[in-house]
């Protein structure tokens, strides 16, 4: 009985606490869903430097579970963005993933990638993807305040070797950005991809060109692009020694006429009996007429 009474008393206390919590929510007004999302996508390391809300921080390798600012442009060790101000050697809430993250910048325009800059705590916008990218500017500098932008960030973006979880986060954030910037009212279909158009600062849906899948579909097949190969339909000059041992040339495939130039020589015995050899006694059976240089 005593145990039952204690359980009932504990239940009553819990009910009172829940009622107090509900009353506090009512008195405080509507829930700030943005803050709730921020808390869900953040962690609380220590900072070894003074931070302002929106500062970009990197991991401090000299202190366990700590962050700091950097003056290295494109630093690949970004830990996130400070959600609130903090003094050195205090804990700070750091956003490591999410959308509409207030981020301090030196300069950036909507649609640019974000990397760390040479100014401590500030990011800078770049037009091309590169090592060190940690986010994407949703607005230009000045919104929501001077030297600030709203950004979509995902720390997995700046890694050289992406894990499956990082790729999943990247795709999630890409589609989240696409919801705001894509110039299409429909979702992508098969074989389409999302391409960023720098000229319009917008994402566009485009169809992937698979190209030719059969050799016969290629263009320029009649071009003589490979001079090391002989073409059967054109004259070719053979500079190598072709030996056809498997299928020797037939008599009708080889020329029967031998032309010897003025400076050429032929080894003894190489000519047939129908050719006179000047160094050997020969029997002339036909009438030789030497009109150019008559016999003396």
Textual characterization of the structure:
The protein is of the alpha+beta class and 296 residues long. The chain has a domain at 33-158: Virus Head Decoration Protein, Chain: A. The chain has three helices and 14 strands. The strands form three sheets. A seven-stranded mixed beta sheet has the order 1-7-5-3-4-2-6. A hairpin with a 6-residue loop joins strand 9 and strand 10. It is rod-shaped and about 125 Å long. The N and C termini lie far apart (157 Å). Mean pLDDT is 74; it is low at 1-14, 16-40, 158-162 and 180-185.
Helix share bin: 10-25%
Sheet bearing the most strands, described? 7 strands, mixed
Could you tell me the strand content as a percent range? Answer: 15-25%
Widest sheet: strand ordering? 1-7-5-3-4-2-6
Low-confidence segments, given as residue ranges, are: 1-14, 16-40, 158-162, 180-185
- The N- and C-terminal alpha carbons lie at a distance of 157 Å
Overall pLDDT score: 74
CATH architecture of one domain: Beta Barrel
Q: What radius of gyration results from the CA coordinates?
A: 42 Å
Number of strands: 14
Silhouette:
rod-shaped
What is the name of the CATH class of one domain?
Mainly Beta
Structural class: alpha+beta
CATH topology of one domain: Virus Head Decoration Protein, Chain: A
> What pattern of helices and strands is seen along the backbone?
HHEEEEEEEEEEEEHEE
Discrete helix count: 3
């Amino acid at each position: 009985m005593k145990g039952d009474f204690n359980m009932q008393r504990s239940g009553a206390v819990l009910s009172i606490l829940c009622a107090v919590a509900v009353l506090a929510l009512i008195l405080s007004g509507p829930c700030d869903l943005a803050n709730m999302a921020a808390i869900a996508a953040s962690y609380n390391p220590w900072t070894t430097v003074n931070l302002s809300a929106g500062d970009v921080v990197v991991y401090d390798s000299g202190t366990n579970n700590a962050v700091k600012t950097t003056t290295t442009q494109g630093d690949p060790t970004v830990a996130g963005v400070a959600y609130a101000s903090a003094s050195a050697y205090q804990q700070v809430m750091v956003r490591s993933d999410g959308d509409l993250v207030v981020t301090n910048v030196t300069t950036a325009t909507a649609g640019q990638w974000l990397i760390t800059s040479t100014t401590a705590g500030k990011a800078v916008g770049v037009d091309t993807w590169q090592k060190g990218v940690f986010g994407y500017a949703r607005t230009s500098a000045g919104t929501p305040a001077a030297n600030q932008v709203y950004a979509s960030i995902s720390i997995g973006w700046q890694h050289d070797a992406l894990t499956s979880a990082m790729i999943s986060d990247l795709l999630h954030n890409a589609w989240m950005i696409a919801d705001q910037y894509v110039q299409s009212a429909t979702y992508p279909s098969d074989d389409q991809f999302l391409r960023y158009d720098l000229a319009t600062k917008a994402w566009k849906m485009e169809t992937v060109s698979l190209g030719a899948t059969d050799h016969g579909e290629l263009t320029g097949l009649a071009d003589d692009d490979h001079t090391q190969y002989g073409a059967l339909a054109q004259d070719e000059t053979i500079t190598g020694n072709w030996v056809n041992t498997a299928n020797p040339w037939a008599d009708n495939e080889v020329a029967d006429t031998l032309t010897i130039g003025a400076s050429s020589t032929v080894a003894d015995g190489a000519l047939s009996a129908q050719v006179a050899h000047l160094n050997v006694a020969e029997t002339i059976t036909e009438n030789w007429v030497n009109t150019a240089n008559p016999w003396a």
